[in-house]
Write a structure and sequence with these properties.
Elements: H1 2-8, H2 13-17, H3 21-24, H4 26-31, E1 37-41, H5 47-56, E2 61-66, H6 69-78, E3 85-89, E4 101-107, H7 116-126, E5 127-138, E6 144-146, H8 151-166, H9 177-183, E7 187-193, E8 196-199, H10 205-217, H11 219-226, H12 232-248, E9 252-255, E10 257-263
Parallel strand pairs: 1-2, 1-4, 2-3, 4-5
Antiparallel strand pairs: 5-10, 6-9, 7-10, 8-9
Helix pairs in contact: 8-12, 10-11, 10-12
This protein binds S-adenosylmethionine.
S-adenosylmethionine (SAM) binds at residues 8, 11, 16, 19, 41-44, 48, 66-68, 71, 91-93, 107-109, 112.
Length: 268
């Protein structure tokens, strides 16, 4: 579990800063109504959370929590002008809330956890009876690139998946969420595909492909080297080849992403 915790911290915040409710958590956007109370767990720098606050309006209440204090400080600074929105430091394994929220969400977080089932139990606990839990997550085994990425990048990505599963993270968690929801007693389970597909001429193309050059060139790659799963030359080669592929060949990238929602029973 400690391994998963330190590996989860390796995200570059420029990727999460650029997200929005309408683009990056579309199914949640459909569920929100004015006046709702919403908890966003693993909110990062609050980009999606601020969109949630806008959607529920001034009569609603939105709380974003994250276990990374630096991200919470940044979120507070960025969105201090929205009165119905607040941010707190909290760990998904230890949430100090109970039966308080109409909707509880956690986006792209369970993928980084060694005990996602336990995390889901905690999310359920914070929802009001009759409230909803909605989790958004990837199946990293189902990423697709057109045309294929260079072999050095394929090798890097394979090692990246191995590095994650060594830390007990579930690379295919998106496809396991519905069963997890059922086991945790949620009802009316609904699965919405939300795959992130970008094509060469799309506006978000650079940011989306940067996720991988980012992992390869920054802290993620360095940490994989330090953990002995891959050598420095292989990371550098993957990074060079991949950048070149992005510039010269890349047509499309699709990350497989599902939103899974369920309702908490009235009596729970
Ligand atoms: C990939 S980011 C997703 C941020 C945002 N939800 C989004 O979709 O853009 C994952 C976030 O989960 C947070 N996180 C990881 N483990 C956590 C834990 N145990 N408790 C709370 N937050 C956690 C990280 O700090 C990070 O901000």
């Amino acid at each position: 579990m400690e391994k998963a915790k330190s590996r989860a911290k390796l995200n570059d915040s420029s990727v999460i800063d650029a997200r929005s409710l309408s683009q990056s958590h579309r199914r949640l956007a459909e569920l929100l109504e004015p006046g709702m109370t919403v908890l966003d767990v693993g909110c990062g720098t609050g980009a999606i959370t601020s969109g949630i606050a806008e959607a529920v309006g001034p009569t609603g209440k939105v709380l974003g929590v994250d276990n990374n204090i630096d991200l919470i400080n940044k979120a507070r600074e960025r969105y201090q002008d929205i009165p119905s929105l607040s941010f707190e430091t909290a760990d998904i394994y230890d949430l100090p809330y109970e039966k308080q929220f109409d909707i509880v969400t956690s986006a792209r977080v369970l993928q980084w956890l060694a005990q996602p089932e336990q995390a889901l139990e905690n999310l359920v606990k914070t929802a009001k009876p009759g409230g909803k839990v909605i989790v958004l997550d990837y199946n990293h085994e189902k990423i697709s690139w057109q045309p294929e990425v260079p072999d050095s990048m394929k090798y890097f990505y394979e090692k990246f998946l191995q590095w994650r599963s060594d830390a007990a993270m579930d690379n295919a968690i998106a496809d396991h969420l519905a069963d997890m929801f059922e086991r945790s007693g949620l009802t009316q389970i609904n699965v919405s595909p939300q795959h992130e597909e970008v094509n060469r001429n799309d506006e978000g193309f650079e940011t989306a492909t940067f996720v991988w050059s980012g992992v390869a060139t920054t802290k993620g790659g360095a940490q994989m080297i330090a953990d002995g799963i891959i050598d420095r030359n292989s990371v550098e080669q993957a990074s060079i080849d991949y950048q070149k592929w992005v510039e010269e060949k890349a047509e499309a990238q699709r990350m497989y992403l599902l939103a899974v929602e369920g309702m908490k029973l009235e009596k729970k």
